[in-house]
């Protein structure tokens, strides 16, 4: 069975609750494509208003982060149970900005992945390399190490339902984009790594997104590649352009 495409918008730290409701209303008629799973990953404060705004639509709700703890004295954190109760289905884990700015290492991210899966959330697990790593020729080794570290203790059944997002750090928010062949090379390597850890059947079920400045101009070529099953969209997710990405096949 062919893997269904998944286009997820990562809103990052943008949109107040009222602005988020307006954006959801603007995008509603533009993102209706039965061939694609559509997800809005929104700031924590926007989760409840966006959940209300997308009720009855084809859009699913995602969070940008979660705690590895269930509850307790963790000021400023948000738990998996809180997300689930608010209607969240997906959660981004290991985005390069969390790794870089908040020093989240693979051991910590592994605990977040396990917590999300334990509670029934679907992780969108991010991995990627810096420009220096790409130029040094260690991209595939580095990403394989990230994947193997972040999936410690995850079963084949669990990983089969996950989403993995390849985000070349050098192409996020810079306007630079990996060529479709470069993106496919890494996404195919991620699938090989999953097959190495588990088996080929499991690897074929995992959906792998490209997350490096995908836009309306390059999405069709990228999504035509056999191992690219969707996009994790940043800046374009806050515009009407997001609808054109969702409807890449029309």
Which residue ranges are poorly predicted, with pLDDT under 50 across at least 5 consecutive positions?
none
Helix coverage percent of residues?
40-55%
CATH H-tier superfamily: Aldolase class I
Look up the CATH topology: TIM Barrel
Mean pLDDT across all amino acids: 96
Q: Tell me the radius of gyration.
A: 17 Å
Please report the number of helical segments. Answer: 12
Strand content: 15-25%
Number of domains: 1
Strand order of the largest sheet: 1-2-3-4-5-6-7-8
Main beta sheet: 8 strands, parallel, barrel
Q: Which structural category fits the helices and strands? A: alpha/beta
Strand tally is 8
Classified by CATH, the class is Alpha Beta
CATH second-level architecture? Alpha-Beta Barrel
Ends distance: 21 Å
Write the H/E string, N to C: EHEHEHEHHEHHHEHHEHEH
Shape: globular
Molecular structure report:
This protein is of the alpha/beta class. It has one domain: Aldolase class I (TIM Barrel), CATH 3.20.20. 40% of the residues lie in helices and 16% in strands. Strand 1 (5-10), helix 1 and strand 2 (36-42) form a beta-alpha-beta unit. It is globular and about 45 Å long. The mean pLDDT is 96.
Concise overview:
By secondary structure, this protein is of the alpha/beta class. It has helices spanning 17-27, 47-53, 80-85, 96-101, 106-119, 131-135, 139-150, 156-160, 180-197, 200-205, 219-223, 241-246, and strands at residues 5-10, 36-42, 59-63, 90-93, 122-127, 163-166, 207-210, 230-233.
Question: How would the blueprint of this fold be written?
Answer:
Blueprint: E1 5-10, H1 17-27, E2 36-42, H2 47-53, E3 59-63, H3 80-85, E4 90-93, H4 96-101, H5 106-119, E5 122-127, H6 131-135, H7 139-150, H8 156-160, E6 163-166, H9 180-197, H10 200-205, E7 207-210, H11 219-223, E8 230-233, H12 241-246
Parallel strand pairs: 1-2, 1-8, 2-3, 3-4, 4-5, 5-6, 6-7, 7-8
């Amino acid at each position: 069975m062919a893997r269904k495409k998944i286009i997820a918008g990562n809103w990052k730290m943008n949109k107040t609750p009222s602005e988020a409701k307006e954006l959801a209303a603007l995008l509603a008629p533009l993102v209706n494509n039965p061939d694609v799973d559509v997800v809005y990953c929104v700031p924590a404060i926007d989760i409840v208003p966006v959940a209300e705004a997308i009720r009855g639509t084809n859009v699913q709700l995602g969070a940008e982060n979660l705690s590895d703890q269930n509850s307790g004295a963790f000021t400023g954190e948000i738990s998996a149970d809180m997300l689930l109760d608010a209607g969240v289905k997906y959660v981004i884990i290991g985005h390069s900005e969390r790794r870089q700015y908040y020093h989240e290492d693979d051991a910590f991210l592994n605990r977040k992945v396990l917590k999300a899966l334990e509670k029934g959330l679907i992780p969108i697990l991010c991995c990627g390399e810096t420009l220096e790593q790409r130029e040094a020729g260690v991209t595939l080794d580095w990403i394989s190490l990230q994947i193997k570290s972040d999936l410690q203790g995850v079963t084949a059944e669990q990983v089969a339902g996950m989403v993995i997002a390849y985000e070349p750090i050098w192409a996020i928010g810079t306007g630079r984009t990996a060529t479709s062949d470069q993106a496919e090379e890494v996404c195919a390597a991620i699938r090989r790594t999953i097959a190495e850890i588990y088996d080929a059947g499991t690897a074929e079920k995992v959906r792998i997104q490209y997350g490096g400045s995908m836009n309306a101009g390059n999405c069709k070529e990228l999504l035509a590649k056999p191992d690219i099953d969707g996009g994790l969209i940043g800046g374009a997710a806050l515009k009407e352009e997001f609808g054109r990405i969702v409807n890449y096949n029309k």
